[in-house]
Amino acid sequence: MTYGEFDDDFGEEPDGMVGRTRSEAAGEASGDPFEEALALANATAPVRGRPAAEGGAEPLTVRVPHATRETAAAHSSTTGGGGDIPYTPDDPFSLDDPAASGNSTWRSSRPSCSSNSSRSSGPDRSSDPAGRESPETLEGPAAPTGPGHHPTVAAGALPWHTAREIAERAVPGPPAPETSALGDALGRTLAAPLAALTDLPSFDTSAMDGWAVSGPGPWRLDHPSGTAEDGAPPGILAGHSPAEVLRDGHAIPIATGARVPSGATAVLRSEHGEVRELSDGGRRLYAPRPAPPGQDIRPRGQECRRGDQLLPAGALVTPAVLGLAAAAGYDELTAYPRPRAEVLVLGDELLDHGLPQEGRIRDALGPLLAPWLHALGVEAAAPRRLADDADTLYAAIAQSTADVVITTGGTASGPVDHVHPTLRRLGAEVLVDGVAVRPGHPMLLARLAPHRHLVGLPGNPLAAVSGLVTLAEPLLRTLAARPPGAPFRAPLAAPVHGHPQDTRIVPVTYREDDRHGLMAMPLRFHGPAMLRGIAAADALAVVPPGGAERGTELELLELPWSAGLSVGWSPGPSTGWTAPGSA
Ligand SMILES: Nc1nc2c(c(=O)[nH]1)N[C@H]1C(S)=C(S)[C@@H](COP(=O)(O)OP(=O)(O)OC[C@H]3O[C@@H](n4cnc5c(N)ncnc54)[C@H](O)[C@@H]3O)O[C@H]1N2
Ligand code: MOO
């Protein structure tokens, strides 16, 4: 099945799934948990009976991006559609807006997709009884040019990679490093190499419970001091230093982790020795096999010598690094400070609890953004909900002391979209004003002051995630001195439609394929207002303009939790940074 044939917001069912519930569909999966999760993630919404004639077969529309909105009206007389240009049914934006589907006047060209071999070898959908057009027919002729043509990449909308680079370089680097208690360094980046402050192990250590022995056996069994009968420890325990030298031909009980006495040549495991009573009241230890020198002793310095570099500067402090640093003798670490972010959630329509009602909806971004930022090693105060009021927004941004203010919503040009006017009022330098990416194209980045920035995320939740990974993450990564994630690419397990000119960000999940190894399976429910796809995703695929065929290797942006990057410190109720003005 060609991916994208059904991926609209109207809940059309893939073939064979019509009329089944989501759980039925999932239950009939292979029984493999992965398949079931995928089925659940990709199961369709209930059929809502939208006949194909109402839009399923229509080339839908995509709007001119944010930066050209002001000019769109000027063009609308020639297109008869407010600047909309036709697009295909998998356009996540247009699918969110059925009203936008009616005014297509021409079809866009998608050069690489139209030669998509997987597609052309796929099932013939031109005779689809549901009346949907085949993907091929949706390709249409080349886009017209001339006076009536509105480019989708507006003058101000930057290519996706360019926008990321600008965000990454918006600051020259991290602020000066600081020294903190060991535990507080979690999720930060080391500012200096981690050199061992001690040998590890710092003494010859028994690796097993048993006996330290000296020379070839059998051995006369000693007790370190006193005897087990008078309550003294039955040998050398971890944390104790043996006072006496072990004489040749003698053995002494020893615990794992205990310091091996001088004179010992090996450790014999408890299960490998047998103690026999002697007629003189003493005891002798026998072993069926010889105990070669060094057996079951971890020698001092085996892991490192004092001064050895354990990790380079720039390493991320993970829980394992905290453990290593503690083992190597550190009480404090010198690392770059966590960037401080303040999240301002805009929208009078948002509720913070209960069910959506009377046109109001739940705030999905407050709960999503704070922990996501924490996973990136950012100190984010509890998100603040602001009323759709220009003065309130102005005051909140002007008073913020955060390194990065992140707003959600209000980036478009609606009656209560105050972000652009507020940035003008603040005299901010807008570095990125719209990105040629779907979803999320109205995202923006502005410099409020030399070391203070604002990332404006669109209000649609997946569009906000797109803005987060495109602009916020690279900026915060530079501020935190975190290394960029290793480039990761995987072939697509199914073709993905592209936007004619813009990059697409599409949630994918990993699957193992016998022939190709790890593949990225695109998920449905990737519309800009939807989080269902990304909630089941392992990564976000970066789909180039024009789309990609099955088997095409795509750049993947791993999600912090699947990339193992979410080492980043979880603020306790009292340790989180409190932004000025927050309750
Ligand atoms: N005339 C045009 N209108 C719009 C364009 C355009 O190019 N021309 N672009 C559309 C696109 S694409 C997006 S994305 C949105 C961006 O709008 P805003 O950033 O101003 O966001 P809002 O209008 O405030 O909200 C959009 C949408 O998202 C919902 N929302 C907002 N915040 C949240 C939240 N925290 N949790 C859940 N949902 C949220 C909000 O209710 C709206 O439905 O603009 C389009 N319009
Ligand atoms: O598609 Mo918008 O670009 O929903 O962010």
From TrEMBL:
GO cellular component entries: cytosol
Keywords: Magnesium, Metal-binding, Molybdenum, Molybdenum cofactor biosynthesis, Transferase
Biased composition (Acidic residues): 1-15
Pathway, per record: Cofactor biosynthesis; molybdopterin biosynthesis
Enzyme Commission identifier(s): 2.10.1.1
Enzyme superclass (EC): transferase
GO BP term, pick one: Mo-molybdopterin cofactor biosynthetic process
Record's compositionally biased regions (Low complexity): 104-124, 140-152
Residue span, MoaB/Mog domain: 342-478
Cofactor(s) this protein requires: Mg(2+)
Protein's UniProt keywords contain Glycoprotein: no
Protein family according to the UniProt entry: Belongs to the MoeA family.
Function: Catalyzes the insertion of molybdate into adenylated molybdopterin with the concomitant release of AMP.
Protein name: Molybdopterin molybdenumtransferase
Lineage of the organism: Bacteria, Bacillati, Actinomycetota, Actinomycetes, Kitasatosporales
